[in-house]
Amino acid sequence: MKIDFSGQVVLVTGATRGIGKQIAEDFAVLGAQLILTGTKKGPSESHPAGGRAEKGRSDFYGVDFTDEDSTGRFIEALAQYERIDVCVNNAGINRVNYVDEARVEDWDDILAVNLKAPFLITRAVSPVMKRNGYGRIINISSVYGIISREKRSIYSASKFGLRGLTVAVSNELARHNILVNAVSPGFVLTDLTRGILSEEEMTALAAQIPAGRLAVPSDVSRVVLFLASALNTYITGQNIIVDGGYVNV
Question: Annotated catalytic sites, by residue?
Fold first, then answer.
């Protein structure tokens, strides 16, 4: 058995860095035709959207999901595709603050990107998946959609909500051979993480994880690839935690 996305069209949001970039690159290597989004104006030269995918084509859209017009234009663009086999709702933002100091603007922006955008995209892609009798939707949530900590009230609200959306939509679409799941990463070693945490802080954090290390993007991507593939024939409405055991401590 092997995973192969040749001939399939795969949408990945937030695909220009971190986990999303890894997911997009892995789909490209496995033959997918890509629809990618990012907040940048255009794809980087090193990204599959830059024309270096090993197979198929890549269509890139610069989208700001905090902006209704930008989001609306992207949703309209999705209507041109005769097939979308896989949708990975990965785009996300986070701003931390104590709840009594949190800004309403932060609530609006975080919910727009982390929850409203996956809803709008799922609503847009599900009709074409229904027509084709096949689809896989994976929502990238977070361990902070299972547990939480101080200054994460808005972010956790968005990710708890995304899990709820995943379960509800999975119940509606399973009869159409469309499987909908969430993946909840723990602490992942990305450029963003390196920019926020010192080496000492990352070492201390790794010591709290039973696996003894932070995840790397490919740890998350491999789970996404399985759930999105034809090897997954019966898993739906689930939340797969990829955290090295952190939430169990």
Answer: 155
Residues 217-233 have pLDDT tens digits of 999 999 999 999 999 99
Cα(169)–Cα(13) distance, rounded to whole angstroms? Answer: 19
**If you classify domain 9-187+216-244 with CATH, what class do you get?**
alpha beta
SS3 content of the chain, % helix, strand, coil (to 5): 45, 15, 40
| Helix/strand/coil for 13 | coil
Question: pLDDT tens across 144-163, in order?
Answer: 999 999 999 999 999 999 99
Rounded distance between C-alpha atoms, residue 90 and residue 228, angstroms:
13
Q: Provide the whole-model pTM.
A: 0.93
Burial of 201 (0-12, 13-18, 19+ CB in 10 A): exposed
